[in-house]
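Input chain follows. Return structure tokens only.
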Amino acid sequence: MKKWIVAGVAVVTLSGCAQLTDYNSAVTTPPPSALVGNWQTFGPQKGLVSPQAQASLIVTASGETLDCRQWQRVIAKPGKVTLLDGDWVNVNNQSRVMPLVLEGSTLRYDKLQLQKVSQPTAECSDALATLQTAPVAVKKPAVSGEEPKKKHHSGMIYTQKK
């Protein structure tokens, strides 16, 4: 049994599988011009929660991305394009790595097929504007001898009924 485990680890190590440990370790890389632009799904797709749901991916020339999904609400996740083992991938702020595969005029991304459009949906434009104007949270370095403040469960209050 141990031989199979050791053999499996050796195969994975030698196969060149690279993993990104966190979002900050991914290097933002300017993508090829063919990937830059606004991409959108059309019609029902398996990668979406509902046939009425819609997905957009905004890719800037500098390599910043916004994965925007809308159905009953808008979920927008910022990310960045990087080159990983020779393949273009999008790494979102939750450290999820998804390949960007361009086949003709169709972009395959996260179980979706997207087509290039001239501009994003109004909801995704609003989400992009909100992300660009939001202040960036900066962690303060801990002062030696100072105990970190404990977090309270105040985030759970929203579930209480009035």
